Amino acid sequence: MTSHGRRAGWWAAGVVAVAGFLGALGLWRWTLTADPVTRAKRAYEQGDWRSAADALRASFATDTGRGADPEALRVYARALARLGRDEAAAAIFGGRLDRTAWEAEDKFLIGMTLVRTGKLEAALEVWQTAMKEGADQPELLDHLGRLAFRLQRLDQSAEAARRLARHDAWQARGQFLLGQVQAVIDNPTGAADALRQALDRDPGARGAPFDAAFYRRMLARNLLRLGRAAEAREQLEALVPQSVPSQAEANEDVEAYWLLSRAHLQQGRIAAAADALAHSGSYGADHRLLAEPSPYVGSARCASCHPEIHRAYDGTRHTRSFHHEGGLLGLPIPDRPLEDPDDPKVTHTIKRKDQHIEVHTQAGDCVFKLVVAYAFGTRGRYLTMIGRDEEANYRALRLSYYHTEAGSGWGRTSGDVGRSDTIDDIRGQKVDVRDGVVRCLYCHVTQPRDYRDPPPEGGPGPEARDPGIGCERCHGPGAHHVQAIQKDFADRAIINLASAPAETVVAACADCHIVGSRPVIEGAREDPKFARSPGLTLTFSRCYTDSGGGMSCLTCHDPHGEAEHSASFYEAKCLRCHTRQANAPVPAPTGRRTTCPVNPARACLGCHMPKVPFPDLHTSLTDHYIRVRRP
């Protein structure tokens, strides 16, 4: 380099140095002279929340008037919330700032203070309100989506996830969450699509709460549900060694090996399926109530191998408690308008019309119409119809049909009694709909998503032809089981409750046989109205808790047959344990047993499991909370 070039280089370096010095000096002077609120905002935007809080705290101390400045208070409260000083932040947000002026950032941080103090429902409400008002802050949407998922508000979680995925930097995170939601609501197509998009964008799941293996397993599980075994194998083989692994290596991801065994089974690769199953260890045994990630086949397919069980089950109320489409037309309907039981000025006319049932409710000059979509219950006991009104809302009809030994009739629908009689409610209470599925469907059909509105992609599966609750509701989707039987695969690939622990069996039955909130029922165990929840109240009984895991719903009930109605049948069950006979056979339950001092041979049920009248249902139900009842 020439001396001239060196001098030019030194000159340029000097200019840069001087410029840097002057810039630093300017920044220093700006820091000293800028308004404290401006300095605090800049620090907050840069993530230096402590400096933001310190700048304003010092400003408040020297300028007492600034403590009334809303903008200064807002930045200070935000910085305190970011620092985890929830009580101080909440005092400013709630007491010194106008709630109507809260911005999206404020609402996000208010929600965070509520979450950290355990007020989850309140936090969700704040965030949900902000989203409805148009807040589109990614941080808020992310936390809202995850909290709603935690609280099982899946519609809200899905909406937040979709909006989050519109932000480029957050797209994968939103798709990962959406995939989780869709998997939980049993939408394998939606779950697979969302998870694949997320993994394509972020293969390492660096921006997600869980690792990539978690999401690949979830994607594979949903692909298997759709019968797309080759795609599932592609995801799973990325998680397991390609050579024959050692047992130690296999234990690192036994779930992936178990799922891989199902992918091979779907493709008829039995040797490979057996090999993968061998390396899955005890995963299957440890998750025996986990439904197979398999397509459905429908109860008619089960009947070909299990004809006797199918015939017995076909006559139970489980298969007769759901009615839709043409099945609605055979239900009993009144031959004249019905006077409302609580308002004689209101009438309800139920009639068949054009291959469906319509309900017209007349209140004065107003006439409301419902078109019946479903009916739940049985003709010989109690039936409630669900219809859609003019605004496409689902409603439970105001009146339900009942049948007793004394006769039949129409009365105020259970669950509607005691509610308000506004002009909106007079035609029936609105029914909760989640992700397009009417809530009541969950416990009355094999697969609720088959009745989704709008219909699921690809239409309903073969299980939709089940008359009500089919085999696969309790045993899980059956395509893998059919393949396993045909190929003589060691793992029968089906849920078998008969071999499951008592606690597992009761949990499976309780999935539907509980009406109400578990915490509420547990807090008021003696309340007779909870006889409608035998899946939980049975577990309060000493017969259950002292049985050493020997007592479950199957101890007295055959799930494949209609319930027995003879008291002597059930008393014989009681006397298997509670007897004075020294040579009585030892039953399955273990633990301490006592003999009734009042009547050790009969009449057990009248005292210990009495019938509880439910006037709204026009029937009585057995109380499964077995106990000595004190006056």
What this model shows, in words?
This protein has 27 helices and 13 strands. It is 43% helix and 11% strand. A hairpin with a 5-residue loop joins strand 6 (382-388) and strand 7. The protein has helices at residues 3-33, 36-45, 49-62, 70-82, 86-95, 104-116, 120-132, 138-150, 154-164, 171-184, 188-201, 212-225, 229-237, 247-250, 254-266, 270-278, 283-286, 299-303, 307-314, 471-475, 479-486, 502-510, 518-523, 534-537, 542-545, 567-575, 604-608; strands at 322-324, 338-339, 346-353, 356-363, 366-378, 382-388, 394-396, 399-404, 407-412, 433-434, 437-438, 611-614, 619-622. The model is unreliable at 21-33 and 582-589 (pLDDT under 50). It has 631 residues and is an alpha+beta fold. It starts with a helix and ends in a 9-residue tail after the last strand. Helix 12 packs antiparallel against helix 13 (229-237). The chain has five domains: 3-33; 36-101; 102-210, Tetratricopeptide repeat domain (Serine Threonine Protein Phosphatase 5, Tetratricopeptide repeat, Alpha Horseshoe); 322-443, no CATH class; 502-622, no CATH class. The strands form three sheets. Strands 1, 2, 3, 4, 5, 6, 7, 8 and 9 form a nine-stranded antiparallel beta sheet that branches. A two-stranded antiparallel ribbon has the order 10-11.
